[in-house]
Amino acid sequence: MPSLKRKCVMTIAGSDSGGGAGIQADMKTFSALGVHGACVIASVTAQNTTGVKAVFDIPVSEIGKQIDTVCTDMDISFAKTGMLSSPEIVRFVAGKIQEYGFSLIVDPVMAAEAGGELLQKEAVATMAEVLLPVSYAVTPNVFEAEILSGLPIKNTDDAKAAALEIAKTGVKYVVVTGGHLDAKDVIYDAANKEFTLLPGTFVKGGTHGTGCTYSSAIVSYLARGYTFVQACRLAKEFVVDAILYSKIIGEGVAPVHPAGASVLKAERAAVIENILSAWEILKPDDVFPQLIPEVGTNIAMTLPDIFKESAHAGYYASGILPPLQQPPIGKSDKCPSADGFGSFESATAAFPGRIHKVKDKTGSKLTSENLGYPAFGSGSNLAKVLQSAQEFDETVRACINLKYTEENIRLFGRAGFSSLSFNRADEPKCFDDNKEWGTWSVIQEAGGAVPDIVYETGGHGKEAVIRVFGTDAVDAANKVILLCDEIRKTA
């Protein structure tokens, strides 16, 4: 019977107390790319975004216990090394690689991006003599490649020459990364004596942890079955996203954000799914159509508070929008996006055609019908309403607008919901275009507590409406259903 154990990957590296590089970056990358990662801590560093302040090496006996414990239980297909600071540690790890026989990617970490030496000079020779001969690949940046090869690197040809020299150690693949040169990576396949060039584009953003993230991404893609060149190409794209989604967290070099792109995509999908779930709650209710105003109802929901500003370039350390958040040239904010969920320039999604009341085929019964699929960039009015409420409470993420009647307000109160109201006639001529005056002003006057509903009785050219708030769209829909229940009781 074949083994049911899933292949795993492993990192043998140093711990970064600032969370931006080392073991921490590796584990974030493994998780983002869908592989299970085990970790062996070879050194503990005291560092932050400004640099490495102290290093403590773990005794090799304890490193060995970690490796043995993992490898005797899990099926490690590929592994990587990061910070191996001393000749003793390098030599010991090389022995363990031979003992267990997994394919190793060496990230020859020599210095931190923010500053600080991480590899003792005498350990460089040990790495070339003992570790690289038993390794699958090595991924030095330009400076590390110069040290390992003993050759200066000023251009791509120099990088090729350095790769050839490093390959003499016996390592199967050499990847000289171009982050400090021209953004072009040089891959050398020693077995076939072939070079592959991977072009790239420089992007602005946090770079602390790029080398760790790149090598751990290669390991992840290899474990998933990609060829080495394919894994390098995908890893390079992954690192670009990790840089673009980086956030400034300290006073020094911002760390990359390996999960940034995937988390945002998942959150966008979750918002759409939640809106559809809310619609499934409201759609079958026979009272709900009575609550739809003439302008129609909508269900709007925003991204979580950590992504509330992510539609704006200033949210990112790069100062520019990541590729998937940039709409096609010449298109409006409501343009289709790469993930099919609407504009990447909006943090709020809703039905583009709203929800309307219609008569059934007999013409005697009202039903409700949604127009269009939920999309970010739709529901601009409710987006302003939500932004106004979120200025006071970021946990309020959804809103549904309903028809106003005094009876509906009375029944909402009977259901136990809090409410606030405003008079549209008091609206000033000039107000913040990004907020809805009535909602913002009445919550401010009430001391900042967001109620369950905010309503207005209408005005010249303005239909009277009720806005129902919720922590998400389903929460708001359930409040509407409670109102429907109260209406049924009075029928």
Can you describe what's shown?
The chain is elongated. The protein has helices at residues 22-32, 60-71, 87-100, 121-131, 142-149, 156-167, 210-223, 228-244, 260-282, 380-390, 406-414, 437-445, 473-490; strands at 7-16, 37-48, 51-57, 75-81, 103-106, 137-138, 173-176, 185-189, 194-198, 299-302, 348-350, 355-359, 366-370, 375-376, 398-403, 419-422, 453-456, 465-470. The strands form three sheets. The protein has a nine-stranded mixed β-sheet with strand order 3-2-1-4-5-6-7-8-9, sandwiched between helices. A seven-stranded mixed β-sheet has the order 14-11-10-15-18-17-16, with helices on both faces. A two-stranded antiparallel ribbon has the order 12-13. It is of the alpha/beta class. The protein has 13 helices and 18 strands. 34% of the residues lie in helices and 19% in strands. Mean pLDDT is 89; it is low at 328-335. Helix 2 (60-71) runs parallel beside helix 3, helix 7 packs across helix 8 and helix 11 (406-414) crosses helix 13 (473-490). The longest helix has 23 residues, at 260-282.
